[in-house]
Design goal:
This protein is 76% helix and 0% strand. By secondary structure, the protein is mainly alpha-helical. It has one domain.
Length: 363
């Protein structure tokens, strides 16, 4: 999710990041519908359950993609530079720049959210005397910043470790063993504090994704396309099987927040495939992708702060789809409104925040 890189952007990676944020947008729209279906509050048909299960995978998939991509670039660069003079000051300057971009983005949207909440449309929890919307509401952003801040230390240790990829594989195996226990045995309550151990495990899992990205940057997967195809087939088949078996607990466990192994495997294969070197073509689509990708950070912050506003729009669209077209109409309407909200937010961010960052020499 970094706003600036020293090298030209890889259009395939940027396109994947846009796909990932689209998946997150769809996931957020259907999150309450999936929760209602799996806790028995709403009787969804098997095909609807399977579709909702697949959309639920998209949230963790998208978040994993962002951490994998960041690790893919930051860790190998830090490792290579760690033996050069002036390593720590240079890394400090790079980190400060990234942190300033994030801080400026949060400040800009925070001011806008306060103004909207005070004068146009009340936003739940968005007020000067509360901090949940700036801390818990943006926890993904702060975990990402923490990983980026750790990149110089990780890169330094990586260069001096005899078998860094073996260490990463061991950490990933341990993390997803714990994740399997959380998802299938002890998921806990829906409302969990920031310091509750299951919540902390989500942050640890994203750190593992960051490290796995570093391993991919050092040595890519030999055959990512077959792996992506296999994961892309297994994930929906697993959701369909659980849905038609009527096993709501299994359906929920398969895509349990950031702990989903299916989402992680899909993300790893996607990033590995996108990172493969291929000749770039200067096409309008490529230019549009590279232009819009920096607004992903803006969307992530805006969709958190303006949750009350876009949630009302998404729910109205889903309700209309359900009324007019049944449960199939619900899915179609939910996907359509998710992509529409994403497109509008990216375009507004591209027109407002990005020029302000450029004026401040931060983009």
């Amino acid at each position: 999710m970094s706003e600036r890189t020293a090298r030209p952007r890889n259009p395939r990676i940027e396109a994947l990041r846009l796909v990932a944020i689209a998946g997150i947008a769809v996931f957020h729209t259907f999150q309450p519908w999936f929760a209602a279906a799996t806790d028995g509050a709403w009787a969804a048909e098997p095909l609807t359950l399977a579709a909702l299960g697949c959309t639920s995978l998209l949230g963790a998939y998208g978040n994993h993609v962002f951490f994998l991509v960041s690790g893919l670039f930051l860790i190998p660069r830090a490792a290579t530079a760690s033996s050069e003079p002036g390593y720590w000051p240079a890394q400090g300057r790079s980190l400060a720049r990234r942190a300033l971009v994030i801080a400026a983005t949060v400040a800009l949207y925070g001011i806008a959210a306060l103004a909207v909440s005070a004068w146009a449309f009340p936003l739940d929890g968005v007020e000067l005397g509360q901090f949940g919307w700036l801390v818990g509401g943006l926890e993904f952003i702060w975990v990402y910043l923490a990983c980026v801040a750790a990149a110089p230390v990780i890169g330094w240790a990586w260069q001096r470790c005899r078998h860094p990829r073996a260490v990463v594989c061991a950490l990933a195996a341990a993390a997803f063993a714990v994740n399997a226990y959380i998802a299938f045995v002890s998921p806990g309550s829906d409302v969990r504090g920031l310091l509750e151990w299951r919540k902390l495990m989500s942050a640890a899992t994203y750190l593992v994704a960051f490290l796995v990205g570093g391993a991919l940057g050092e040595k890519n997967l030999a055959r990512p396309a077959p792996m992506l195809a296999a994961c892309g087939a297994v994930a929906p088949l697993a959701e369909v099987a659980a849905a038609f078996a009527g096993d709501l607990r299994l359906l929920e466990a398969l895509s349990f927040k950031s702990t989903s192994l299916l989402s992680f495997a899909l993300a790893v294969a996607s990033v590995a495939l996108a990172a493969q070197p291929r000749p770039a073509k200067d096409a309008p689509t490529r230019r549009a992708v590279i232009a819009l990708a920096p607004s992903i950070l803006g969307f992530y912050v805006a969709q958190s702060m303006f949750y009350t506003l876009w949630r009302s729009v998404a729910d109205a669209a889903c309700d209309a789809g359900l009324t007019l077209g049944g449960q199939a109409g619900l899915i179609v309407a939910g996907v359509a409104v998710s992509l529409a909200i994403l497109a509008v937010t990216l375009l507004v961010d591209h027109a407002v925040r990005i020029p302000l960052l450029r004026a401040a020499c931060l983009a």
